[in-house]
tRNA pseudouridine synthase A (Candidatus Desulfosporosinus infrequens), 263 residues
Amino acid sequence: MRNIRLRLAYDGTNYHGFQRQHETHGPTIQGTLEAVWAKLVEEEVTLATAGRTDTGVHASGQVVNFMTSARIPVEKIPKAFNSLLPRDIRILQAECVPNDFNARWSAKWKRYDYQMDNNLIPSVFTRLYASHVPIPLNVDQMQMAANLLEGRHNFKTFAAAGGASKTFERTLYRCLVKKEQGLVIVTCVGDGFLYHMVRIIVGTLMDVGKGRILPQEIPGIVASQERKQARMIAPAHGLSLAHVNYTNESPFEVFKDLLPKNT
């Protein structure tokens, strides 16, 4: 048996999230991948994933792994997979890893990116990958608020009901807000994320950008541990899982150009 790790990208628009569900709910990323593998080698496998992305959420750096007895050379797995996968899912890399590797539990930290189209008239080219916010956003105020979210906190305020986590302490290494060509982009890098945590953080930062919340209110919102204090959940389609790291490298080293430490 070999333990195969895949790095993949997908457009989540047409999928009912990552996790396999009953077929009446619609296609999922996991279900599609497992069905393709069964066609390729006539073997049923169960994928473990770094992040169970929700309906409509995308990924440019998702990671999965599975145990297999198939002898297909690892370097040929991406091409074999991609020959049968729909065009909105692509395997980017395959490699053999130790048997104790697990895509979820072995992860050290993850990076999510969230995009907002902050133009009055939404772009037709980003409509599937950026939520539309027609009200001008104050990015400087949003960054001030984001700075106050960084560090290790109890993020229960930013956890939606229905999650399986029993503890709420997480480390948010960096929360960066920037504007590029009409898009406001929030990047969150942390050692783990609660159910809908990034989307709730983004929704809260949206309210800061609109002037509905002051940056200095953020510590009190975190300390309250009350979900209602964090306001809306940002729409799913603006979110993408960008990177999952399995080494002891610091995220500030890996993303040193993207994530400069505040001075």
Observations:
- The chain is about 20% helix and 30% strand.
